């Protein structure tokens, strides 16, 4: 039998506490709240809640704040990461040639002012270095928006008194989550079909290289059903989720035309992202498409 040893010194080694963060994603129909924990480099979901804005009738920041505070009271009060709707920001690859160190920050500041047409004081931005790819030799992934856009989202969901430690966008968050779950897949198009808009994030070499959105989402499908069947939107939503509306007669089902328009816009954005990388349209087939 193997000898057992007592190791009392192990009890005196301090263990770093797990770090937790609350992620808040304010959509047009609901507020998604997620609590995650990081310990020793591993991340796990601790809890989550969805606050239905239509069901609760939450229209004012005060009501949203009350609901958020109730959720935080259950899940715990931790630093908050806020997701900014993709349409409120701009993300793209910026090639800075051979710039290094502090020069990178200065050039990115100049580039954001040039791209946005706003004064530097009105812009908030973030950037990260990328591995060279395609025509880009010293690329950086840059995301920026007006400061007022962030403050509006903070006010809207009642987070003004919370410790907002991070602000990201839908596409950036989507890409980060997918990379964490599928690190081996390096070419993919992520499509987030939301209620009011659709977000498209293109990854190449495991890096986010294009992010965009267009104002067409699942609400448009429900509105089409409500118009065709002359029924309230609530009933149209139920029909949308329970019936096959894409097939049927010779011209397809009642949603075929609207979904077709959505798909064509999606393909246009996919082609646009490849054009920026200098690739041929035929390369579209080489990318896996994941619909969220």
Summarize the structure.
Helix content is 34%, strand content 29%. It contains eight helices and twelve strands.
Which structural class matches the secondary elements?
alpha/beta
Please trace the helix and strand order, writing H or E for each element.
EEEHHEEHEEHEHEEEHHHE
Number of strands: 12
How does the major sheet shape up?
Answer: 5 strands, mixed
Strand content: 25-35%
Round the Cα radius of gyration to an integer and report it: 23 Å
Distance linking N and C termini? 54 Å
Specify the CATH architecture of the largest domain.
2-Layer Sandwich
Number of domains: 2
- Write down the overall mean pLDDT: 82
CATH class of the largest domain: Alpha Beta
Approximate shape? globular
**CATH fold naming of the largest domain:** Nucleotidyltransferase, domain 5
Number of H/I helices: 8
Sheet with most strands: strand arrangement: 3-2-1-4-8
Helix coverage percent: 25-40%
Low-pLDDT windows of residues? 1-14
